[in-house]
UniProtKB/TrEMBL annotation:
It comes from Paenibacillus antarcticus. The keyword Secreted does not apply. Substrate binds at residue 116. The active site is at 54 (proton donor). Residues 25-266 form the NADP-dependent oxidoreductase domain. Belongs to the aldo/keto reductase family. InterPro entries: AKR, AKR5G, Aldo/ket_reductase_CS, NAD(P)_OxRdtase_dom_sf, NADP_OxRdtase_dom. The record marks 83 as: Lowers pKa of active site Tyr. It comes from the Bacteria. Keywords: NADP, Oxidoreductase. This is Glyoxal reductase. One of its GO terms (molecular function) is oxidoreductase activity, acting on the CH-OH group of donors, NAD or NADP as acceptor.
């Protein structure tokens, strides 16, 4: 049973990644994201997930530096993720984008760097750039985001290094069963974005009943379901009480009956873009 906020999963290259972290999508750069990140670290979070497209890497970097100074933690205690955006994909442009990200974050090494979306005819060259960054020791782990099975199969035909992580939309309405099976077989760790379906599940009767039985909130039940299904999860919040509440999922366990009921909510329904039909 996963029973603490610092619990980690071991990626296929041996790097340990926290099961739980803070996502900062749409958190404004500056004070909002700085306070959110510092609050999360203060309350025990050790993983922070940002991206070039979020336009808040500078704030994340400042928050990390301040949190380390104030907490006595070392850089090795934290796991920082960022992603290369679609317009920067390609070999040389990805390498340049990475340098920009590192300058903004103020870090010498990144823990995880992801290809944000599978941009047609570019993601293989982008992946070659990530492989170079990994071999050069600039990144401890590399992966992809929003890749479906056929994208991964195509990438693996030419890749020298297998992705360590695939971050995808995942919640009770989008179970990603085929992808789960494929990634498990390839030892690619799945990670959930939008785990709460942007709040659209918080009044679901089935989830509410399970939450009541455990003395937990619906959000906590969903996040626990993520973890018990083997997904790293990174809910986004900028408010202290929600940051604390989201992480309070390590002192209970969903039964097999609970899990089956939640699994039964799947409708293959997305709130984000379709990885086979996106336009950014």
């Amino acid at each position: 049973m996963l029973n603490n906020l610092q619990a980690t999963t071991t990626l296929h290259n041996g790097v340990k990644m926290p099961w739980f972290g803070l996502g900062v999508y749409k958190a404004q750069d500056g004070n909002e994201v700085i306070q959110a990140v510092k609050t999360a670290i203060k309350h025990g979070y050790r993983s922070i997930d940002t991206a070039a497209a979020y336009n808040n890497e500078e704030g994340v970097g400042q928050a990390v530096r301040e949190a380390l100074e104030e907490s006595g933690l070392s850089r090795d205690d934290l796991f920082i993720t960022s992603k290369v955006w679609n317009s920067d994909q390609g070999y040389e442009s990805t390498l340049a984008a990475f340098e920009s990200t590192m300058t903004k974050l103020g870090l010498e090494q990144l823990d995880l760097y992801l290809v944000h979306w599978p941009v047609k005819e570019k993601y293989k060259d982008t992946w070659r750039a990530l492989e170079k960054l990994y071999k050069d020791g600039r990144v401890r782990a590399i992966g992809v985001s929003n890749f479906q099975v056929h994208h991964l199969q195509d990438l693996l035909q030419d890749a020298q290094i297998k992705p360590m992580v695939n971050q995808v939309e995942y919640h009770p309405r989008l179970a990603q069963l085929e992808l789960r099976d494929f990634c498990k077989g390839q030892e690619i760790q799945l990670e959930a974005w939008s785990p709460l379906m942007q709040g659209k599940l918080l009044d679901n009767a089935t989830l509410q009943e399970i939450a009541d039985n455990h003395g937990k909130s619906v959000a906590q039940v969903i996040l626990r379901w993520d973890l018990q299904n083997g997904f790293v999860t990174i809910p986004k919040s900028t408010t202290e009480h929600r940051i604390i509440e989201n992480a309070d999922v390590f002192n209970f366990e969903l039964s097999s009956d609970d899990m089956e009921k939640i699994n039964g909510l799947n409708e293959n329904l997305r709130v984000g873009s379709d990885p086979d039909n996106f336009n950014f």
